Amino acid sequence: MQFKVALVGLSQLSFFGDKEGRFAKCAEDLGAFLRAMGAELYVYPEQVVTPDDAERALNIIAAEKPDFLLVQCTSFSAGLLAQIMVRSGYPVGWWGIPENAVDGPVPFNSFCSINMYQAIGRNYYNEEQIPTKWFFGEVSDPLFGPRFAVTVRACRAIKRLRASRIALIGGVAPGFNPKTVEAAQKMNFPFVPGVCTPSDVEAALSYGCKILKFFPAGAMGGLSMLKSLIAPYGHTGVQFMPTGGVSPANLGEYLATKGVIACGGTWIATKDDIAESKWELIASRCREIAAITGQ
Does the model's pTM come out above 0.85? Predict the structure, then answer.
């Protein structure tokens, strides 16, 4: 699955140095770095100085459909720009670079800017939980390369998981406990409570839960029972994740049912198999599931 990073450079006209040249060299090095990882880079070609510049840049970047926005503070940059970038809708990285100056202003303008930007994101947009991360150094620096590579791999893995029908990021439970649901919602933590009766479904819907674990699927009547729940409640937009009795023999039939968002099964990686390091057996089951689901 392809992964794309968008790079934009921020600066101030009043600060010294060849900002355009520094940014161009960093963009060139970053492009080679990402190509080696099998990822793409889009470079916004103009330096961003004002809020209007920032809005214009993001409008153009949006057409590229990036997965990650890397904002380089090529020199000191205005705090107002951080607010615009952090609200862009992308995971954001703040990139500071060494200025290598021998005279003039103290050469920590880029570093100070990413420190300020990270503080703005955390302090003023904490409730939105917008993912941000700082980076510092040339692309070849040991402080930058490994840290950015880990970020790219993690974001690409999340993208793959979100596109998959065999994984879930968050928490699940076998039953519906209002206190557990309330705690998860307060933390903005994705959570899927368990249901097995119409009353359970209605209780979960009353708390705004639209993805529900159908458990124990096999003991409660399997696909026949699940379809009986989907019929009266499908109009609400609720989706089910059956577990307990799901196997390679019926996985395809479950996933082909409208109203089923995913399935779960402990047979994929049992506690004993993990304890005994049976990784090849677990991998073979994963390949079997991937073949069934067309992943």
Answer: no
